[in-house]
């Protein structure tokens, strides 16, 4: 016999409870690191979560949502257009999809290509707006992952002032998917050290104060190493129907 589908009220209470647990863990990790809890932004990751459940999540306090597939994000943004949701695109972007994200996204966290930068800037200029952007770095060195090698980031960011509608805020990464905390932490340390270097040499107008790293399984480690944005999905919404390898390259 199949279990009954939870009611909207039950789902609301579940999400509220999960959010409270995560926020407490964020606060505890901040205390451990000698940081203020307000220095970390929680970005709920909503991939595979149906729009009707996101409407409930909005009522629970999720007013920012991150998606890694442009088509999925676009469809949800249209269905939920009556809600004041700030959408963040956190996955790899092809140039032919740029035209879509400029219509609904407030933020793009996965810039690793000057071609995408140029196309994004062109579309944003036409729309008369800017967009917050993070540069994605491949901190684990895995060939299956997107992002710039850490050693290429300095040259890359020197080109970014050419794209004036891109409001560069910081760096984003996916750590290695491992139960070995030392290996995971190494990725985060690498990002913190890179951030510190970039703050010294970044062209005028570019900020590297933000560090988006850490997900459901490792966000506390990420906070200890300086994360200012943590991207949490399953700990809020429950397990996804397919393994992580389906959504993130190099996982599973």
TrEMBL record:
<dbReference type="InterPro" id="IPR001608">
    <property type="entry name" value="Ala_racemase_N"/>
</dbReference>
<protein>
    <recommendedName>
        <fullName>Pyridoxal phosphate homeostasis protein</fullName>
    </recommendedName>
</protein>
<comment type="function">
    <text>Pyridoxal 5'-phosphate (PLP)-binding protein, which is involved in PLP homeostasis.</text>
</comment>
<dbReference type="InterPro" id="IPR011078">
    <property type="entry name" value="PyrdxlP_homeostasis"/>
</dbReference>
<feature type="domain" description="Alanine racemase N-terminal">
    <location>
        <begin position="36"/>
        <end position="241"/>
    </location>
</feature>
<dbReference type="GO" id="GO:0030170">
    <property type="term" value="F:pyridoxal phosphate binding"/>
</dbReference>
<comment type="similarity">
    <text>Belongs to the pyridoxal phosphate-binding protein YggS/PROSC family.</text>
</comment>
<dbReference type="InterPro" id="IPR029066">
    <property type="entry name" value="PLP-binding_barrel"/>
</dbReference>
<dbReference type="Pfam" id="PF01168">
    <property type="entry name" value="Ala_racemase_N"/>
</dbReference>
<feature type="modified residue" description="N6-(pyridoxal phosphate)lysine">
    <location>
        <position position="47"/>
    </location>
</feature>
<keyword id="KW-0663">Pyridoxal phosphate</keyword>
């Amino acid at each position: 016999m199949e279990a009954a589908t939870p009611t909207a009220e039950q789902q609301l209470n579940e999400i509220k409870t999960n959010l409270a647990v995560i926020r407490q863990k964020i606060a505890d990790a901040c205390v451990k690191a000698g940081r203020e809890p307000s220095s970390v932004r929680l970005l709920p990751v909503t991939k595979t979560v149906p729009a009707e459940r996101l409407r409930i999540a909005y009522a629970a306090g999720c007013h920012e949502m991150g998606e890694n597939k442009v088509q999925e994000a676009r469809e949800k943004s249209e269905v939920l257009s009556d809600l004041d949701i700030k959408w963040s695109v956190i996955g790899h972007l092809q140039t032919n999809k740029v035209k879509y994200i400029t219509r609904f996204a407030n933020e793009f966290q996965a810039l690793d290509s000057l071609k995408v930068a140029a196309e994004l800037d062109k579309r944003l200029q036409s729309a008369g707006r800017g967009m917050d952007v993070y540069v994605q770095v491949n901190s684990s060195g895995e060939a299956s992952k997107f992002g710039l090698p850490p050693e290429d980031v300095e040259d890359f960011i020197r080109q970014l002032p050419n794209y004036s509608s891109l409001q560069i805020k910081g760096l984003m990464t996916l750590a290695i998917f491992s139960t070995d905390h030392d290996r995971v932490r190494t990725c985060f340390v690498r990002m913190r050290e890179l951030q510190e270097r970039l703050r010294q040499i970044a062209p005028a107008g570019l900020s590297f104060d933000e560090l988006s790293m850490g997900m459901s399984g490792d966000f506390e480690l990420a906070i200890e190493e300086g994360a200012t944005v943590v991207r949490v999905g399953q700990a809020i919404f429950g397990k996804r129907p397919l393994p992580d390898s389906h959504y993130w390259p190099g996982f599973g």
